[in-house]
Amino acid sequence: MKKFLTKIFLVLPLTILSIQVAQSQDVEARIDNFRIRLNGGSKYTQTPTVALEIMASGEPREMRISNYEDFKDNSSWIPFKGNFGQWSFSNGEGEKTIYVQLKDKFGNITPVMKESVIVDRTPPANPSIKIIAEKGFVNNPNKEVTLELNADDAKYMMISNSKGFIKARWQAFRNSTKWNLEGTADGMREVFVKFIDDAKNETQIVSAQILVDSEPPLDPKVLINADQKVTNDKNGKVSLTLFARGASHMKVSTDTTFAGVNWVPYATSMEWKLAQQGKNVVYARFKDQSNNESKIAFDDIEWDSTPPEDCSITINDGAKYTEDIDRNVNLKLKAKGAIFMMISNNADFTNAGWIPYKENYRWQLTPGNGEKKVYVRFKDENGNETDVFIGIITQAI
């Protein structure tokens, strides 16, 4: 405050007096660094009642506070108090503004200072989570998935493999993030997430489920002709019995690389044609819906559809006649690979049975003179039968 001298002139007879009187005059406010802090400096609040602090240097003596810029609520001057306490705005959400003026001891008034805060009691809307995995299954070793997340106006999010969010922390909101599922066993997994905004309004918990399937089909098996070791089917046709627990598709091949073989729907049986005479191996591999592939299963079988070869029958060393009174003759038999033989005097082998193969065999012809025929056929160990071979001799007694 500056002091000025004012001259007062008094007109008196023959004398003029000049008196200087000191008086005060307002020049500037004695208040500096005037500022307001609402809600501890936080921009957002869930309640319309917030902490109010008023800061200023100098000598503030009084203040007036209002929710209106023009102080139309007739806010009165009250003693200055820096830590004012709680201030209430009108109900409803949105931006709320407070207006403050200060007055010093000389009556100097500051310009109106204002500060705002946003009242927000609404949590982020439309919270959602989606687990992205190929074909809807997880079969990678790390059980890593991609999470697609959404929540309108969310600032942070918390993700967990448990509903209790044990050891989970808030992290900056992102629409997409990588995530590792927990646990070692296959089965359903659930991922939980919640969101929060700047005002710390928290959403309800939302979750999504995904199937973990990293275990391949178990106990893969393939059996040829119910595990027979030999087949003599003339066309090489056999029946396969297949099994693999949890399988959805399978491949069958005579090659361990399965080159050029496509996956087909899983079945427990199928017809198969062998590739060549001799030993044949059939391989099978299975996979489940998550493309987990089993170990290779296999079985083998011997395909032998070739009957004994170089077959012949000779009676009495090729003689044309026999005069044996008992009708007995000597048969000389030949059949490469034969194990059994069947001999008969009848073309239909009536009442004949298989007997062990012998190269020399004593045989009795049918009664009566005339041309006699002896019929024979041979069989190997795998049941392959030859055609009928005939020996002829004439009975003459």
From TrEMBL:
Q: Which UniProt keywords apply?
A: Signal
Domain of life (superkingdom) = Bacteria
Signal peptide from the UniProt entry: 1-24
Q: This protein is called what?
A: Ig-like domain (Group 3)
Species annotation: Thermoflexibacter ruber
